[in-house]
Design brief:
With about 300 residues, the protein is an alpha+beta fold. The chain is about 20% helix and about 35% strand. The protein folds into 2 domains: about 120 residues, Metal Binding Protein, Guanine Nucleotide Exchange Factor, Chain A (Beta Complex); about 150 residues, no CATH class. It contains 5 helices and 16 strands. The relative contact order is 0.15. It catalyses: S-ubiquitinyl-[E2 ubiquitin-conjugating enzyme]-L-cysteine + [acceptor protein]-L-lysine = [E2 ubiquitin-conjugating enzyme]-L-cysteine + N(6)-ubiquitinyl-[acceptor protein]-L-lysine.
Length: about 300
C-alpha cells in the first residue's frame, strides 16, 4: 500500500517557548492547565542562558584545585530572566500571582510553587526572591497576544520534543535521563530521528471511549486525519526500580543529558509515550530492549 502525503512546504519548526523570550519585550506567564495569570505584563531587561546542568561536574574535571564555584548559585536580578533547559529563573519579588508552599521544614516538597486556581505545581522556590518555573507547566506569551488553551498532551509532547531537538543539535547529545523534581529517574530516552512526518489516519471514534486521560485530544486525533512534525524516540520506564542497572549507568555517563521536570509531568510523559507505543504495529513497538514512541511538535 502506498500513501500520498501532502504537507505545507513552508512549515517551520517552532522554537521552545523559553528560548523565544527576548529582552525589552513584555511577556505574561500563564498556568498551562487552567490559564491563570502567573506573571502579568513583565518586561525583562536581560534574558540570559544558563550553563548546562553538568557544568559543576565539568569544572571539577578542568580545575587542578577545588572548584571556586562549588558553593556558587546563579540568581537573576530584579529584571533578569535566566533560561535553563527545562525551566526559567525569575526574580519573583511581589510580581508573582502564584503561591509558595514553605512550612518550617526545609524538605524539597516544601519549596513548591503552585497555581492559586488549580493548585498545579508550577515550579520551585530556589532562594528568597528567586523562583524556578518549569516550561512544561507554563505558557509564555507576549502580553499583546493573550492566552490560548492547548491540549495538555500535545503541549507536553511539543515542549519535550523541542527540548530534545535543540539539545541534540547544540550539544550533539542524543541520550537523555528524565528526572522528577524529587530526584528520581522516571524515563531513559534516546532520540533516533528529529525530522519525522507523522500521519494520523481516520479511525473509529468508539475506540476513544476506552481512554480517560487526555480523552478530548485522543478523540480529536481518531476522528481526523492530521499531519504532524514529530520526533522518534526510544524509551525505557524506570519507575519502581525498573531498568535500574541501566539507569544507574546512564546517571554516571557524561554523554547522557539530564532533564528535570515535575514528577507528575514525568508520569504524564511516560503515559503519553506508552499509549503511543501501544498504538503502533507490534513489529514497530520495540527496538532491541527499548520501546518506540513518537512525540508531536506544533
Amino acid at each position: 500500500m502506498r500513501l500520498l502525503v501532502q504537507a505545507d512546504s513552508d512549515t517551520k519548526s517552532v522554537s521552545s517557548q523559553n528560548k523565544s523570550l527576548k529582552a525589552q519585550r513584555s511577556y505574561s506567564f500563564y498556568c498551562q492547565l487552567c490559564g491563570e495569570i502567573i506573571i502579568k505584563e513583565r518586561t525583562f531587561l536581560r534574558v540570559l542562558p544558563l550553563p548546562s546542568e553538568h557544568w559543576g561536574a565539568l569544572v571539577e574535571e578542568w580545575c587542578c584545585h577545588p572548584s571556586p564555584f562549588a558553593s556558587s548559585l546563579l540568581h537573576p536580578l530584579d529584571d533578569d530572566c535566566l533560561l535553563g533547559d527545562t525551566y526559567v529563573l525569575v526574580n519573583s519579588g511581589s510580581k508573582s500571582h502564584s503561591e509558595s508552599q514553605q512550612p518550617a521544614s526545609k524538605s524539597k516538597e516544601n519549596t513548591r510553587v503552585i497555581c492559586k486556581r488549580c493548585k498545579a505545581m508550577l515550579g520551585e522556590t530556589v532562594s528568597s526572591g528567586t523562583t524556578k518555573y518549569y516550561v512544561t507547566e507554563l505558557i509564555i506569551r507576549p502580553s499583546v497576544e493573550g492566552f490560548h488553551m492547548i491540549s495538555r498532551s500535545l503541549f507536553v509532547q511539543n515542549v519535550v520534543a523541542q527540548c530534545l531537538v535543540e539539545l541534540s543539535s547544540a550539544r550533539s547529545t542524543f541520550r537523555f535521563r528524565i528526572q522528577g523534581h524529587d530526584g528520581k529517574t522516571y524515563i531513559l530516552m534516546w532520540l533516533l530521528n528529529s525530522d519525522t512526518l507523522l500521519v494520523e489516519s481516520m479511525g473509529n471514534s468508539d475506540t476513544s471511549n476506552t481512554f480517560t486521560l487526555f480523552e478530548d485530544h485522543l478523540r480529536t486525533s481518531f476522528m481526523s486525519s492530521d499531519t504532524w512534525n514529530a520526533i522518534k524516540v526510544l524509551f525505557l520506564p524506570c519507575i519502581k526500580d525498573r531498568n535500574k542497572i541501566l539507569a544507574d549507568a546512564w546517571e554516571n555517563d557524561f554523554g547522557v543529558h539530564l532533564l528535570t521536570f515535575p514528577s507528575k509531568t514525568c508520569l504524564e510523559l511516560l503515559l503519553i509515550m506508552s499509549l503511543n507505543n501501544a498504538s503502533l504495529p507490534p513489529s514497530l513497538q520495540c527496538l532491541n530492549s527499548f520501546q518506540v514512541a513518537f512525540l508531536k511538535m506544533m
